[in-house]
Specification:
Strand content: under 5%
Oligomer: single chain
Distance between the termini: 27 Å
Number of helices: 12
Length: 278
C-alpha cells in the first residue's frame, strides 16, 4: 500500500471516549499497514537492514576479535553487546524513512486528511518495533550459529529482550524527532557521523576495564553500555564487571536511560509533528 493509494477512514462524528479510541486505533493500524507494505515492495532494503548487523557480528567475531580478554568464550560477551548496538543503530533507518516521506510531501498529505493526527507517528513506531523484533530474532539465530548461548532460562532471556526493545523504542523517538528537524534524507548522513562514535564509545566490543580510567568511566555511563551489561547479566554471559556504581546497577540504568530519553524526545517529536507545514 503506497502513499499514493493509502487513504484514512472518514473522520468520526461526535462520540464518547470509546469511539475516539476506536478511530485512533483504526487510523494507527492503517498507517502501520502502509509501513509493512513497503517491506514487500522493497525487499532489498529490508534484507540489507537485517544483514548489516549480522556482517558486523561476524566481522568482530572472526576478524577484529571483539570480547577478547573477557573470561570464557568471547562470543558470549560480544553477542549481547551487538544486540544492543543493533537496537541503537536502528534510528538511522527510522530517520531515512521519515525524511523520505517528508521530502515527498506524504506526511503533509496525511495531515490534511480527516484522521487522528498522531496515527502517522504511531504507525511508524509500530512498524519499526516489529522490524526490531525480526532483527533480534535474526541476530539471535546468528549468535547461536557462532557459539553464543544464554544460561539463565527463558524468563531472564525474555527480560533481556524487553530491555533491548525498550532501548530501541527510545532511540526510535530520537530518530523521528531528528528526522523532522533535518527534513531531508541527505541529512541522515550527518547524523550517522554522530551515531557511530556514540555507538562504539560503549562496552559492546571491549570491557571498560581494558580502557584508560577516564575513558572507561565515560563508557560505563553510556546508555547502550547499561543495556549491554544488563542483558549480559540476564543471559548469564560474562560482563567484564569493574565494580563501579554504573556496572553494579546496570539493570536500573538500562531502564532509567531509555525512559529519560523517551520523556525528552517523545513530546519533542509530537510537538514538531504538530507544527509541520504551519
Amino acid at each position: 500500500m503506497s502513499a499514493a493509494t493509502t487513504t484514512a477512514p472518514v473522520a468520526p462524528g461526535p462520540g464518547g471516549a470509546t469511539s475516539r479510541l476506536g478511530w485512533a486505533l483504526a487510523d494507527s493500524w492503517t498507517m502501520t499497514r502502509r509501513e509493512l507494505a513497503h517491506w514487500a515492495r522493497q525487499p532489498v532494503e529490508v534484507i540489507v537492514n537485517l544483514a548489516f548487523p549480522v556482517m558486523l557480528l561476524l566481522m568482530f567475531t572472526y576478524l577484529v576479535g571483539g570480547g577478547r580478554g573477557v573470561p570464557g568464550d568471547p562470543t558470549e560477551y560480544l553477542v549481547p553487546g551487538m544486540l544492543a548496538l543493533t537496537m541503537a543503530f536502528g534510528l538511522e533507518a527510522t530517520m531515512l524513512a521519515v525524511t523520505q516521506d517528508l521530502g515527498k510531501g506524504v506526511i503533509d498529505r496525511f495531515r490534511s486528511m480527516p484522521m487522528v493526527p498522531g496515527a502517522v507517528l504511531v504507525g511508524r513506531s509500530a512498524a519499526d518495533m516489529l522490524q526490531s523484533v525480526v532483527s533480534l530474532a535474526v541476530m539471535t539465530g546468528v549468535g547461536y550459529a557462532v557459539g553464543w548461548r544464554w544460561h539463565n532460562g527463558a524468563a531472564a532471556a525474555l527480560g533481556a529482550v524487553g530491555l533491548l526493545l525498550l532501548l530501541r523504542f527510545a532511540m526510535l523517538w530520537v530518530g523521528i524527532h531528528l528526522a523532522m528537524v533535518a527534513g531531508r534524507p541527505e541529512m541522515v548522513t550527518a547524523v550517522q557521523i554522530l551515531v557511530w562514535p556514540v555507538g562504539f564509545l560503549s562496552n559492546v566490543f571491549a570491557t571498560p576495564a581494558s580502557m584508560p580510567g577516564w575513558l572507561g568511566a565515560v563508557v560505563e555511563w553510556n546508555p547502550m553500555s547499561a543495556t549491554a551489561t544488563a542483558v549480559r547479566e540476564l543471559f548469564g554471559n560474562p560482563g567484564g564487571a569493574t565494580g563501579s556504581w554504573a556496572a553494579e546497577h546496570a539493570g536500573l540504568l538500562a531502564v532509567l536511560w531509555p525512559v529519560a530519553i523517551i520523556a525528552v524526545f517523545f513530546p519533542l517529536a509530537v510537538r514538531k509533528f504538530a507544527r509541520l507545514s504551519r
